[in-house]
Amino acid sequence: MLVRDPARLGDRGSQVEVVKGDLAKPETLDAAFAGVDRAFVVCASGDLSELAGNAAGAAKRADVGHIVLLSSATASDTRDYAIARWHRAAEAEIKASGLAWTMLRPGAFASNSLQWVGSIKAQGAVYQPTGDGKRAPIDQRDIAAVAVKALTSPGHEGKSYVLTGPEALSAAEQVAKISAAIGRPLRFVDVPESAAREGMEKAGLPEVFIQAVLEIHALVKAGQDELITSTVEQLLGRKARTYDEWLARYGRAFL
């Protein structure tokens, strides 16, 4: 497991080897990739194409056999908006390496709900400019299971998998499920885009990120992000976990 600061990771047990490195600092990567046969690459923030390119370069020098990239369902979208462009560019870097690759393209993570913890605890409310628009949130454990499948079994090279949960839910419906799970009344407030922008500005988020998030919110509100796939079930031989199942495991975070 490659991490920037191993001291912050905590104990991961004897089966996890932790190495220090940073995808934004290519000079740290050759030692980290040495002896690696297959790699799961996650570019979480910053210039995704640069990070993916750095990872691909180190992987190629280390003769890694297969890269599985955590991308995004937006990479499958032909429309032109920031998050889609960022993920398509990251995928292009991996493909250009000449190494065997698999792209995992999840939609909205169920765990994105955790960004609501603060306002739920403080005000019993969630504020978001997405109206009745729906998405099909996927449990991160299902993404991990698909990643393991792609890394440890043959036949996934050169394939891109769009991954979603099994049901499309609006933010209001998610909030209602959280309310039922924690036994506390909650409300969803469909705020104007300007209010969402103001909140992100107060949080110190960069303008490029704010604009990208608002683009996604607009797509959701317009009902243009309701895709549901059966890919998880096809790959794992079981149904994707529901949002209720995610809450059963992680809902205590909202208490």
Automatic annotation (TrEMBL):
Residues 2-154 form the NAD(P)-binding domain. InterPro entries: Ergot_Alk_Oxidoreductase, NAD(P)-bd_dom, NAD(P)-bd_dom_sf. Gene3D superfamilies: NAD(P)-binding Rossmann-like Domain, UDP-galactose 4-epimerase, domain 1. It holds the Pfam family NAD_binding_10. PANTHER family: PRESTALK A DIFFERENTIATION PROTEIN A, PTHR43162. This is NAD(P)-binding domain-containing protein.
